[in-house]
Task: structure prediction
Amino acid sequence: MNTHDHIAISEMLSLVGHVFDDGRLDEIGSVFTADVVYDMRALGMPVIEGIDGAREAARQMGAHGPIAHLVTNVVIAEQEAGDEVASDEVVGNEVAVDSKGLMLMADGSVNAVVNHDVVRRETGGWRIARRLIALPTAAGGA
Result:
């Protein structure tokens, strides 16, 4: 994993907000793998599977969903020793990424979440293969 990968992953995570907030649902494949599993149970929503499932969930939320997704505090797990990938041509390797998110809702309220992602290198670049949304907790888990 090199600096280029870190930048590409961070930019791909930022792109998620632009794709959904701008209603560019035909571009979901630029941020998710075809077999993505998106677990939003912490928000009282279902587990979504596949790009078509993500696209349909976004359509169903419509005006009731967030109007702006913001991502911050991106932390990319380093691969274990011996798992180094020397070439940007290697497809299929996965990396764990944690980030924090803020969602601006249509009523002006703001919701905070923690994203636990597994991102996978595909032919077109890094994509989210699995996302688990969690609610933030107070320091020390209290």
Notes: Strands lie at 32-39, 47-49, 66-76, 94-105, 110-122, 125-134. The first strand starts at residue 32 and ends at 39. Helices lie at 3-21, 50-61. The radius of gyration is 15 Å.
